[in-house]
Amino acid sequence: MKQKIEKNTVQETLIIPLYSRKIAKEKFPDLIGDKSSDDIINKIDYDFSDKEKYFNSAIGLYGALEVAQREFDLECEIKEYLKKREDASVVNLGCGLNDLFSSVNNGKCKGYNLDFEEVIKTREELLEKQDNEFNIACDLNDYSWFEKIEKDKGVIFVASGVFYYFKKEEVKNLFVKMSEYFKCGALAFDTCNKTGLKMVLRLLKTMDMKEVGSYFCISDNLEELKSWSDNFENVSSKSYMNGYRKLKDIRLLYKFFNIFTDKIFNMQIIKIEFK
Ligand SMILES: C[S@@+](CC[C@H](N)C(=O)[O-])C[C@H]1O[C@@H](n2cnc3c(N)ncnc32)[C@H](O)[C@@H]1O
């Protein structure tokens, strides 16, 4: 039986990066190492027919480029962390059906994929796990998952496309608690400003996910985020589209969009280290 993705829930949003990875692999194969999206898409019970037009439009293709860049950005952050702590834990918060761990697995680290129970169930059916990889079904806002992560050898957390759907207080409480529990850990995630958040909401409407809200963004230059906890250090940000690798051989239109995502939406990857 095909695995079902519940409509109009935050879980359904995983469809967007999943399909974007498939498109990115087809159109920009040099930019993404994705091995699984095509197969997963064939195995889930989800009607993509009304979404294909969007994904193949100029904006949709640019969205696929964004997802390829975000994967690369977060892979860089993980690999950087693993250079110092090769047997650390690598935690994918709100993993969806993303196979990021296979690209960074050095055989010594441990990989953890966290998402709601329904998503993890689907994941278990569709994505093969490696020996050093674990799936944890949880609500990220219920911190009992902390105890399931090995933390003594260091922990790098990543979240791609996840915190847009959290309220600010939820993000704040989660980050503060993580910084207290996971000493010497680090967290990297993507975000944008208020204008970018409106664009996320518009995308959800286009995707017919009208009941999913998007709330969290960062509009100042990280001052508020830095003030959340004395356990944060080296809070830094890089451009999501241009901060980790430059895209040279792309259409002029996408180069123009790149400037737009930087200047108008302030799409960025933020990294926080925990003391
Ligand atoms: C846009 S998808 C991104 C999926 C994946 N990170 C990727 O890049 O393909 C957002 C994911 O966050 C998960 N998520 C959102 N809120 C969550 C929460 N409170 N607890 C666990 N997972 C959550 C959703 O179920 C969904 O899989």
TrEMBL record:
GO terms for molecular function: methyltransferase activity. It comes from the Bacteria. Coiled coil: none annotated. InterPro entries: Ppm1/Ppm2/Tcmp, SAM-dependent_MTases_sf, TcmP-like. Pfam families: LCM. GO terms for biological process: methylation. Keywords: Methyltransferase, Transferase. This is Class I SAM-dependent methyltransferase. The lineage of its organism: Bacteria, Pseudomonadati, Spirochaetota, Spirochaetia, Brachyspirales.
